[in-house]
Amino acid sequence: MDRWLTNAPRWLLLGALVCAPWAYGSTPLWTVDVLNVVLGICVGLWLLTCLLRRAWPNVHPAVASVVLALAAYACFMIGNARYEYDSLLHEFVPLTPLLPWAAGSFHRELSIQNTLQIGAMLGVICLVCEMTRQRVWRGRMLLTIAGTGTSIAILGLLQKFSHATSIFWGPEDMGQTFFATYRYHSNAGAFLNLTWPIVAGFVAVAYFKTAAGWKRIAWSAALVLCLAAVFVNTSRAAAAIGVFLAGLCLLWTLWQLLRGRLPLLSVPSTVVTVLILIGLVTTVAATAGLDTSFKRWSRFGREVNQRNPRLLATQVCLDMVPEAGWMGFGPGTFQTTFPYFTHRFGNQLRGRWIYAHQDYLQMQIEWGYVGSALWAMLVAGGIGYSLRRAWRHRATLSIAARVTHLAILFCLAGVLLHALVDFPLQVASIQLYAAMLLGMLWGSRHWLRHNHATSSRRASHRQQRSHFAAPRAHEAWVAQQAGARRESVTCETGPEAKDA
Question: Rounded to an integer, what distance in angstroms lies between the CA atom of residue 26 and that of residue 232?
């Protein structure tokens, strides 16, 4: 019973990982609410098991401190809210804050919704920190991420092959920018770039450790499909980031080969394998249709001008940052406060802007300097902590640990780069996957550590190299042993032995 209760939140979390991107990317409000409830149950069950075991959650003290600080900050902004927004009258309704001299949210209801979502993601980070203690759960999390990402890529390619006008089971008014289960192609591209490096990691481990042939074929096919989906998807930012990450993967592989860290592979065979993969990706992408992507790239130069709405929105956000101050306007309040700063551009910024299309500026507006600093500590701290451990144990890390660490870093690098030009970190499904990977980095003390098997193998390799480096000494030692054996034989068969 205790084991069942311990594993229940973990299995539920894996189920949420599968369902979140398939539920229209968890972009509709009702899917976000369902996801928040499921993640809340996961975190609640996990804390209950800790209470029954009478043990503190096995979470790094730094991440626990930052998570509690972010939760306290959001709760304070809600409790000290200055306004509620009337969406019918389009005006702010003043409230009575607890501390009139302190900052507070400018839209209490939106801040509550956003805080519930952010709180669920922070709880996931802490839960994953403890799940990484066991190798089996690390493997299950990575397999779920890779498998779900591949399934989304396959769905998107099938839509392109069949020239679908909308998501197969969705409404007809999905527009022209949908891909797979995502209404907006840029979100789909960001999700694919957040998952395909994990698939590439499985491919690398399968080849480096001479896995079974069917595993190599299966993971290689999954990687081809994922990369083809990135390029067929019409998001230019996602395609550019995908090329950048793929280039980094190739450079790392060649560097490891040249340094002799991959003794089971050779440079010619690796080059041939990479060329075959590139050819397959190009063939699948061209068959699915790259004409729309080429058309969008051809318009890139004309769209980058002073009248581009996104560039104008960026200027508005830069004007809002000083007004937001140290504490910001409150979590989730961007869509409410943004229209009040667009007057100088007239009708050039038409429509409703829910997101800033630049996550870092939106974070600065909603969370202020204080909240943004806490978020930076959480993200950069996890990356820096894992890099420090990887550097400390670099001599004994297994190839699987190296590849896993690098794949997670590439995933997070892709989504952080994409956040410069769009809003991937505002999408619940992408938030969930980023939180999972960040939690694995904060829990890296359980898997980026001294590996006794690797160190013993390297010691034997060094001993062999030392023998080969001194062949003359080795030959002299062999001759000496042979001479000693001849002397012993002569003593046993000499005249004294015959007389006896």
Answer: 22
Tens of pLDDT, residue by residue over 151-199, are 999 999 998 888 888 888 877 666 678 888 998 999 999 999 999 999 9
Whole-model pTM: value is 0.87
| Amino acid letter for position 86 | D
List CB contacts of 222: < 8 A, sequence separation 6 or more.
Answer: 146, 150, 199, 202, 203
CA 45 to chain centroid: 25
405, 404, 401, 409: which is closest to 454 by C-alpha? Answer: 401
* Domain boundary assignment for the chain: 2-306+348-450, 451-484
259-308 pLDDT, tens per residue? 776 666 677 777 777 788 888 888 887 776 766 676 776 676 666 676 78
Residue 61 to residue 82: CA distance in whole angstroms: 33
Q: Which of 220, 242, 269 lies closest to 410, judged by CA?
A: 242
DSSP state of 96: -
Tell the residue number behind the tokens 């619940």, with chain if given. Answer: 428
What's the distance, Cα to Cα, between the start and end of the chain in Å? 79
Distance CA 258, CA 28 (A): 49
**DSSP 8-state secondary structure symbol assigned to residue 35:** H
Which residue shows structure tokens 């306290």?
72
Instruction: Judge whether 378 and 202 are in contact, CB under 8 Å.
Output: no
Would the CA dihedral through 283, 285, 286, 288 be positive or negative? Answer: positive
Token readout for 432 is 């969930």
